[in-house]
Amino acid sequence: xxxxxxxxxxxxxxxxxxxxxxxxxxxxxxxxxxxxxxxxxxxxxxxxxxxxxxxxxxxxxxxxxxxxxxxxxxxxxxxxxxxxxxxxxxxxxxxxxxxxxxxxxxxxxxxxxxxxxx
Length: 118
What we know:
- The protein is an alpha+beta fold.
- The chain is 29% helix and 32% strand.
- The protein has 3 helices and 7 strands, in the order ββαββββαβα.
- The protein has helices spanning 17-25, 79-91, 106-117, and strands at 2-6, 11-13, 33-38, 46-53, 59-66, 71-76, 103-104.
- The chain has a 7-stranded antiparallel β-sheet.
- β1 (2-6) and β2 (11-13) form a beta hairpin.
- α1 runs antiparallel to α2 (79-91).
- Mean pLDDT is 90; it is low at 111-118.
């Protein structure tokens, strides 16, 4: 099941394409973060895509494929590209991330995960 959550605390289970679009369009100061998470009983780890509207009005897009080592980040000015990517991820399309250059930030997050577990 997909769950969409924004910084303002709104949670939408099984969000529709229009609901995801509205949540993205409503990002602003104080509500600058949106997470789409895939939650399944037989799916181990954390599987999500998230976006942050930064202070410079760029979008920081990240995704995690199960484990911290598979956590990637990119930035763009285009809300449209973010929406296309998020909808593609939600639909399980294999090419959803092809229009971005991704940086693996898993090594930075792996240390954070180890600290939180200790």
